[in-house]
Amino acid sequence: MIIDTHCHLNFSEFDADRDAVIARARENGVAKMITIGCQKADFEKTLAIATKNDGIFAAVGFHPTDADAADFEILDKIAAGKKVVGIGETGLDFFRAENPPEKTQIQSLERHIFLAKKHKKPVVVHLRDAEKSARAFFKNHFDFDFEVHCFSGDWNFAKFLLDRGAFLGFGGIFTFKNAGEKMREVAKKCPADRILLETDAPFLAPVPHRGRRNEPAFLKDTAAFLAEIRGENFERFCEMTTKNAENFFGI
Fold first, then answer.
1. Per the confidence metrics, is the pTM higher than 0.90?
2. Rounded to whole angstroms, how far apart are CA atoms 197 and 182?
3. pLDDT (tens digit, 9 = 90+) per residue, 194-242?
4. Cis upstream peptide for 208 (omega within 30°)
5. CA-CA distances (angstroms) from residue 36 to 27, 79, 200, 239?
6. Domain span including residue 123
7. Rounded CA gap, 101 and 7, in Å?
8. What is the CATH number of the domain that holds 15?
9. What are 165-196's pLDDT values in tens digits?
10. Alpha carbon distance, N-terminus to C-terminus of the chain
11. How many Å apart are CA 63 and CA 89, to the nearest integer?
12. CA–CA separation, 30 vs 23, rounded Å?
């Protein structure tokens, strides 16, 4: 059994066959999934999917690229829901020049953390082209439970985050040929009890599915790849990462 800790089953890419996607996931050992709603318009649909399906949970928040449109009053109300197990994805993203300014993104991240503490739920953090700002932020902010999803940095940055209690989300990008030795090093050195598995579906399908729409069923390919390069037994690796997810998200 494995758990997809980060997918977007609420996205329109799954509207035509969502039930079949969920069924395939379960057939491939993905017993639980966390679907992420990262815009206000997504929240209702995200919660409906989680409510309808046993073993599917929700995390809700405002993506950093939408930080200037965040409605924290709405988020506060939704975060209280029993099927909501995480706050986010929030974070820092400076990949595009038109993204909200750093100050706005940091203020949004701080508000997410406040609500996460209030509702006793972990924070799902997105970081893209933001290592310098993230180091400055997490140097003083780490008194809460958080994971950095879809981690793609080097071991030095990974260790900085791990030293502050972070969990790291490992997805299909680790299987890409161009992932490089820096990511392989992270995969090998990361403590087993800090690894969470994810797909980020419908994005970033792992090898051998690259180029296709990603879906939770493909998580087993990422898990097998990571277990192999870590030199670990596949079943034990799956057992450990499942335990990690269950403890971290309380599922």
1. yes
2. 19
3. 999 999 999 999 999 999 999 999 999 999 999 999 999 999 999 999 9
4. yes
5. 22, 12, 9, 23
6. 2-249
7. 26
8. 3.20.20.140
9. 999 999 999 999 988 899 999 999 999 999 99
10. 14
11. 6
12. 9
